Amino acid sequence: MSGIELDDAARCIAALLSGKISSKGRYERTISGDPAGDWIVELDFDLLKRMGREQRDPDSLVDEIDRGAEDALAWAAELVVPLEVVSPPLPLAGLELVETLIRRLREAGAVGSSDNLVYAFGMQFNPELPATDAKLITACIKAFLCAYEWLLARADVDALRSISPYINPFPIEYVRKVIHPDYWPDRETLIDDYLADNSTRNRALDMLPLFLHLDERRVRRVTDDPLIKPRPTFHYRLPNCNIHEPDWNLAQAWNDWVQVERLAADADALAEVCTAYHAFLGQPLKRWFGDWNAQLEKRWHDQ
């Protein structure tokens, strides 16, 4: 989000949680007091955060030069770099708290993607997996790949985010491979196949945090990106953040994600959808002129 100062956002969170604010640096605040864990509000710019943790000696010429460079970078960042609020792991009932926080941040002046053509702000979910066996993970990836075009249409992704690299679609050959009815690999093969085509965080469903959690050595053999952190979760990056719009909330994006989980949990429906989508992708005319989303909607409606 933008339109709100770092400390004002931190105070909104602290007031809601009756929490205490502490500072890790000039561009990061931690709010403690929630039994679920700490909340974080920060400028989403790793270089500036690292600079902001450094102590500056007011009598040092070198530090004065560094401070000038930092100030210039911070000024430029205000135009395009958002503030990011990060919650601790929450139970499902905790979504109500997030909805309340959204309303309070909106009232304090927070704005999102559609407020400005240069904004490309997103809302990200990190849903915990019920298990980490290869079959369940594969089923979820299959379901997501089959539902991706539907999710994209439902999300009405902001124009700048659409052309930015943040949520690049999966390569078509990777999609074909994974949704093939016979594709049920062991966990090592699943991770290797993913890394071969997707050694980047810039996917609408970023699997790298989960795979790093499961097999750090295997992932780090391919990418040493320090921004990839291990988590026993999916990392769903597709939805916009339009926090300034009065009717915007978590509900649609969350319920759309739940459709992916439901499809993954229904083996017969998943097999049918994967077979149909694999055939759809194999016919260029249907890919260009057909309506996969309508087919998928009909299948879900008929269930």
SSE topology sketch:
Layout: H1 6-17, E1 20-25, E2 28-32, E3 39-43, H2 46-52, H3 61-80, E4 83-86, H4 95-107, H5 134-155, H6 159-163, H7 172-179, H8 187-197, E5 205-206, H9 208-214, H10 216-220, E6 235-236, H11 251-265, H12 267-281, H13 284-289, H14 292-302
Antiparallel strand pairs: 1-2, 2-3, 3-4, 5-6
Helix pairs in contact: 1-4, 5-11, 5-12, 5-14
Structural class: alpha+beta
Low-confidence stretches: none
Order of helices and strands: HEEEHHEHHHHHEHHEHHHH
Beta content comes to: 5-15%
For the termini, the CA-CA separation is 38 Å
> What does the overall shape look like?
globular
Instruction: Count the beta strands.
Output: 6
Major sheet attributes: 4 strands, antiparallel
Radius of gyration over alpha carbons?
21 Å
Number of helices: 14
Major β-sheet strand ordering: 1-2-3-4
Query: What proportion of the residues is helical, as a percent range?
Result: 40-55%
- Mean pLDDT, rounded to whole units? 88
Note the quaternary state here.
single chain
